[in-house]
Amino acid sequence: MRPLSLKWRVSLVVAAAVAASMLLAGVVAYREMVEWYFRSLDRGIKIMLNDTARALAEEGPDSEIEARVREIVGVSSAPQTPCVRIWMDGTDGDLLVVPAEGPAAAVLEPRRLDSMRPPRAEHSVRFNVQADDFWYRAIWRRYDVRGKKVNIAVAISSTFAHTELAEFRWDMFFSGCVILPPVIALATVLVWLGLRPISRTAKALDRITGSSIEEAQFPPPKGPSELKPFVESVMGVLERLATALREQKRFTANASHELRTPLALARSTIDATLLRERSPSEYRQSLAELKGDVERMTALTEALLMLARLDSAEAGREMELFDLKQTIEDVAHLFERRASETGKRISVNTRPLHVHGNPMQIGCLFSNLIDNAIRHSPPGGTIELTMQPEDGCIAVVTVRDEGGAIPAEALPHVFERFYRADASRSRASGGAGLGLSIAREIALRHGGDITAESSPDKGTTFQVRLPKA
User: Are 278 and 410 contacting, i.e. CB atoms less than 8 angstroms apart?
Assistant: First the structure.
C-alpha cells in the first residue's frame, strides 16, 4: 500500500484536531446546557415541594389542602400537567395524588417509587422518566409535617428541554459536517504552499550533474523559516561534495601525470634498447634505468595507497599507546646508512614520551620528513631530530636540516598533494610531491598538526605537534 504524502497526512492531522476540538467543545457546551435546563427545572420543583409542605402544615379540610396544592403546582387538564404525590412513611395509601391520572401520575406511581432508594433526611432523589412519549423531571423528598415523616414527590414535564437538547446535538453534527471539509481544504492548501520551497529545492537538485555541481546555487526559501536550515544544510553538503570532487579530479589528474612520466621514460628506454643488438653491458644499463623507473612508480603507488587509506574511515582504527621516542629512533636508524652514503648525519635527541595513535602511521610520518631532509639538505649536513613537551599536553617533534631552500611563497603550499617548490623539489630528486601531504594527513588524523619554516640562514624546520596520552 502506497503511503500517504506529507500534504495529506498533515491535512488529516489538522482535520482530526479540528474535529476533536469541535467534539470537545460540543460535549462541554452540551453538558452546560443539560445542567442549565435541569437546574432551572429543579429550582421550580423545589419551590413547589417547599410550598406544598407548608400547605400541608396548615390546618383545614382536605379539600382546601388539595386546592392549595393544585394552585401551587399548577395542575390542569393538559396532557403534560404536573403531578404531586403525598404519602406518609409506614402507610400503604396515599394522602394525596393530584391529578390521579395522566402521564405524570404514571411517573409517580408507587411501583416506580418503591424500586428507588428513599431519600435521606434533608436530601432529595432526582430522576428523569419517559411516559407516553413525554419526558418528566421528578424530585422526591421527605418533610417533617406536624411531627410526622411525610413524603412529597413532584413531577413536571421536561419534554421541551429534551427536545432542545436533541436539536442542539443535531446542530453540532451538521456544523461539523459543514466546517470540516473547508478546514481540510484550507489545511491542504497551506501545507502545499509551505512545502513549495522543498519542491523548488528538489527540482534544483534534480538539475545538478557532476559537471554543474560546482555552480549550483539555491535561492533563500520564501516559505516558513523552519525550512531555511534544511535548504542551507543541502547547500553545505553540495559545497563539500563539490570541494571533494574538485580535489578528486585534481588528484586523479596529478596522479596520472606523475605515472605517465616514468612510464614514458620506461617505454623510451625499451624502444631505444630494441632498435639494435646491444652488448650485455648495455642491456644491464637499460635494465638498471628500467628498474629506476619502476621504483619511482612503485613509490608513487605506495604513496597513493597510503593517501587512500588515510582518506578512508579505517584511518582512525588500530590506535594504541606507544613510546614516541622509540618509534623516532627506529625510523632514524633505518635512514642512517642512506644519509652516510651522501655524507650526511642524523642526530636524534629525544626523551621517553607516550602518545596514543597508530605506530606504523607515525613512523611513516617521520620517514617522509627524514627522507625529505636527506634529499634536500646539502652534502655534509646534519639532520637534527629533537623532541620536547609543550604546555604539559603536546609533544613537539622538530626535524631540521641545513637546506633552507624553500621559497617563502611556497611554504603555504608544501603540504598540498603533488606540489613541488622549484628550488627544492623536483622529479630528478625522486620525489612525487606526496610525502609531506601524507605526513600532514597522519598528523591531523592523530589530533595534531605540522608546520614548516625555511630560510637560507637557519635551514628548513618541520615541527610536528601530537597530543600526549
Answer: no
